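not sure who needs this but someone in the group chat was asking about 3-oxoacyl-[acyl-carrier-protein] reductase from Geosporobacter subterraneus DSM 17957 so here u go. i didnt clean anything up, its just raw.
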Amino acid sequence: MRLKDKVAIVTGGGRGIGETTCIRFAEEGAKVVVADMNEADIQIVVEKIKQMGGEAVGMKVDVTDGVLVEKMIAETVTKYGKLDILVNNAGITADGKLVKMTEEQWDKVINVNLKGVFICGQAAAKVMSEQGYGVILNASSIVGIYGNFGQTNYAATKWGVIGMAKTWAKELGPKGIRVNAVAPGFIMTPMTEKMPEKVLDMMKDKSPLKTLGYPEDIANAYVYLASDEAKFVTGTVLSVDGGVVL
């Protein structure tokens, strides 16, 4: 087990890539804190992990609320005595072309995807710095590297969390903390499954592998970066995108 006895918080852990990451971490021996806004989703994931013999607790948290995030971190440390891993997975979209995007759309995405990562990262870094070790992983996207039509706000946040990861890697490295980002490509999630078949085919055609990725592909990348196998990897962006070139 590559994460045996590690303690991990996964934000946005109730569905999609976050849910799969929670389950994969538990399979690798981690004690998992499933953090999400939706209590029903949280409980489903926690029960799945418990049924497979793993250990997990759920915490409802709004990543944009510093008080709630600090409480989540504190409760995790109180329960388990430490915090080894934070996966900043929580994120949203509110798409629109530049000339039509409202300030509300901009602020909403920036608040969750950028400010939320900052708040969670900062809170976790304080604990990890005292411990002298830890791993922080930020969810980016190929959209953050190459841009994407109609996603000015989303692209800005996903590029921003890469900048955070690289900056934190420099600041926190001397404290024994590694920080990296993962940039998924087109992934088959409950959201993409609802897209028209022709759109899915177009997404597949962009990859030399002619297929979409799955949440497991991203979760496995997180497992690697969170494990001691990646003990000399920090400040990097791992693109898990099937070779997509935009």
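also The chain has one domain: 7-240. if thats useful
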